[in-house]
Amino acid sequence: MPKITIRKAAIEDAELILGFVLKLAKEEKAEHEVETNKEQLSKTLFGKDSTAHALICEADKVPIGHAVYFFNYSTWQGKNGLYIEDLYILRAYRNLGAGKKIIKHLSRIAIEKGCGRVEWSVLDWNTPAIKFYEALGAAPQDEWIRYRLSGRQLKKMTRS
């Protein structure tokens, strides 16, 4: 069994993260939606005004996945929350405990920062991920529907 470790990502990891993002998008059948590049990730994850953070997961010092997260806020709790934007492990390294180790790591960060919760989204057809999250004790939030403005609709909203 390989030794799984989690480390804070550095700007030198931008290309690695981009590769993981592209693999994740392919698995989610959404390659066409990826708009970012190495330079954009470098700026938004590691720049002076960055509000997002990244972790690299390694097996015996070989990068096998990543997580990207940021802090949001709950008025009901009066506390920040930690939102996991991406959690990806290369297919060949799944079922070794790497995903669970990342979620434990992020949960510790959330507790250290005084967060009231950790949240993420999963596609409704991604049964393996859903089973994994439920095995961790996570509960789906079925009563909430997530909405999004992006692209043309976002620009249109600014003109109305």
Note down, in words, how this protein is organized.
The protein is 35% helix and 25% strand. It is built from 5 helices and 5 strands; from the N terminus they run βααβββαβαα. Strands 1-2-3-4-5 form a 5-stranded mixed beta sheet, sandwiched between helices. α1 packs across α2. The radius of gyration is 16 Å and the shape is globular.
List keywords for this structure.
160 residues, alpha+beta, 35% helix, 5-stranded mixed sheet
Low-confidence stretches: none
- Please tally the helical runs, counting DSSP H or I stretches of 4 or more residues: 5
Radius of gyration: 16 Å
Termini Cα gap: 57 Å
SSE run:
EHHEEEHEHH
| Silhouette | globular
The count of β-strands is 5
- Specify the biggest β-sheet: 5 strands, mixed
Helix content: 25-40%
Strand content: 25-35%
Mean pLDDT: 97
Assembly classification: single chain
What structural class is derived from the secondary structure elements? alpha+beta
Task: Give the strand order of the largest sheet, numbering strands 1, 2, ... along the chain.
Answer: 1-2-3-4-5
List the helices and strands and how they pair.
Layout: E1 4-8, H1 14-27, H2 38-46, E2 52-59, E3 62-74, E4 79-89, H3 98-112, E5 118-120, H4 127-135, H5 151-159
Parallel strand pairs: 4-5
Antiparallel strand pairs: 1-2, 2-3, 3-4
